[in-house]
Recover the amino acids of this structure.
């Protein structure tokens, strides 16, 4: 116990835990809508594109968090346009955007100064020690904006996520709502990239929701429970990662998957369980 | 059992048509599916829209909802909000949601994000959701996950969501298709009460018999046109219906 409390004495650990806590709450909060819309892997794709933004930051000397945010938001908006116009096969168009993003990132980084590749790895897989105080402040502002937006627009996001055609039919501003959700998803990706890494972003958006939906029957309860699971997995994963010397991203996701497995087992053993994924 | 006394919508202030198509060409991407549609739905009227699959019935409804293009002429709704029951057999989605959560979506057109925090708005929302569920006979299922309900009950949830708008105009796409006799009876009872309360209804259906005593008029969609259909034994005149 003393060892755990001693972790708080380290500046880098405090920053890592704060960043993890922000991500742990924010990712499932937005993830519930993403899963409801059947776009569970969009965070993964936006993470690919955010890599181009990171590379642009590394090359130009700008803060990679902001350049990644610009790239991820641009990609999220492009996905939204493709999805709503529907002239090209949706998954093909998304694949073009996502693979273009990761290819662009790899090529741009090849022109970066020597030593940049180690930095890249920290964005791909997460890194405890590289979260700066400025990063934490940026993440704090982004998470606050995200939280306020979700709390304010939660019923509308639920409406467009569960039945977009009905929402449009009764006159709700569906385009503005889905665009806002897309931007929030991009923000979540950027929030998560230091903690779990761009390649595992989707996991923190989806797995806590998947665990929560095994045990809850209302959307509101799923969101609250998913945030609790996300918070526990992300902060617990950071601590475990430090203690075990394992990569934080993978450790956090494995912990979340463990909770998912336990929740699934509990739901299977419970009589009259709710059918999932109908 | 069907509800004995479901809450009905308040009657509209005037007897002018709630929905009117004036010489309208309707379609998608500049391609008309229906031409020269002249149609009006008055308060207290239930219009049945029939016709073969692919004839354009849903296009007519979607144009009324603003989801299909009006290529010529005019489509006019005389009410700021309206209820819509889509042709879906299930409301269950990837993440569980309760019956009350789904029905509450029907309240969203009434107040924006800031007004929704007002206690009076929240009270009105709760009361409207409860009344809508009472009307469709699902008041005791408000807290259940919709995925637990049968297909017919889920259609009633969709109807309750439309009722929660408290609008005088309801548009329904095949509300009784694939629904057992008991659920059909509940849906027909609710629609009859709405009509008698002065609401205007447009119902796409393949089965006018399932809505016997509810619909007051029928149009047939076919060959790109909407035509008045001959009298049908299950139709009731609007005046008599009241």
């Amino acid at each position: 116990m003393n060892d755990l409390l001693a972790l708080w004495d380290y500046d880098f650990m405090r920053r890592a835990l704060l960043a993890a806590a922000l991500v742990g709450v924010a990712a499932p909060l937005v993830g519930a809508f993403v899963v409801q819309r059947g776009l569970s892997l969009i965070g993964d794709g936006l993470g690919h594109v955010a890599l181009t933004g990171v590379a642009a930051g590394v090359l130009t000397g700008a803060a990679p968090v902001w350049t990644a945010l610009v790239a991820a938001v641009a990609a999220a908006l492009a996905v939204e346009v493709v999805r709503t116009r529907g002239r090209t096969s949706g998954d093909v168009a998304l694949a073009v955007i996502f693979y273009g993003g990761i290819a662009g990132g790899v090529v741009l980084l090849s022109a970066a100064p020597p030593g940049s590749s180690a930095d890249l790895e920290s964005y791909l897989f997460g890194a405890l020690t590289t979260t700066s105080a400025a990063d934490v402040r940026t993440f704090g502002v982004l998470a606050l904006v995200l939280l306020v937006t979700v709390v304010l627009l939660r019923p509308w996001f639920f409406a467009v996520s569960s039945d977009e055609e009905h929402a449009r039919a009764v006159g709700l501003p569906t385009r503005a709502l889905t665009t806002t959700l897309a931007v929030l998803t991009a923000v979540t990706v950027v929030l998560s990239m230091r903690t779990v890494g761009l390649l595992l972003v989707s996991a923190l958006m989806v797995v806590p929701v998947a665990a929560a939906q095994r045990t809850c029957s209302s959307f509101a309860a799923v969101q609250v429970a998913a945030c609790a699971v996300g918070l526990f997995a992300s902060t617990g994963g950071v601590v475990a990662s430090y203690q075990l010397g394992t990569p934080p991203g993978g450790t956090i996701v494995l912990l979340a998957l463990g909770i998912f497995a336990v929740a699934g087992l509990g739901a299977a053993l419970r009589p009259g369980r709710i059918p999932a994924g109908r | 059992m069907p509800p004995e006394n479901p809450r009905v919508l308040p009657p509209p202030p005037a007897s002018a048509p709630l929905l009117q198509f004036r010489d309208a060409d309707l379609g998608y991407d500049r391609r008309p599916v229906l031409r020269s549609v002249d149609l009006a739905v008055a308060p207290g009227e239930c219009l049945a829209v029939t016709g073969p699959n692919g004839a354009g019935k849903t296009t007519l409804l979607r144009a009324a909802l603003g989801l299909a293009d009006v290529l010529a002429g005019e489509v006019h709704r005389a009410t700021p909000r309206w209820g819509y029951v889509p042709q879906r057999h299930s409301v269950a989605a990837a993440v569980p949601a309760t019956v009350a959560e789904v029905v509450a979506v029907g309240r969203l057109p009434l107040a924006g994000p800031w007004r929704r925090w007002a206690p009076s708005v929240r009270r009105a929302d709760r009361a409207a959701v409860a009344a809508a569920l009472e009307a469709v006979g699902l008041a005791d299922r408000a807290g259940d996950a919709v995925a637990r309900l049968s297909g017919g009950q889920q259609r009633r949830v969709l109807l309750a969501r439309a009722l929660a708008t408290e609008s005088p105009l309801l548009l329904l796409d095949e509300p009784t298709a694939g629904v057992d006799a008991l659920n059909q009876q509940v849906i027909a009872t609710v629609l009859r009460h709405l009509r008698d309360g002065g609401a205007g209804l447009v119902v796409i259906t393949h089965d006018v018999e399932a809505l016997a005593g509810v619909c007051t008029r029928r149009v047939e969609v076919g060959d790109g046109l909407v035509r008045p259909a001959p009298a049908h034994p299950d139709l009731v005149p609007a005046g008599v219906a009241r």
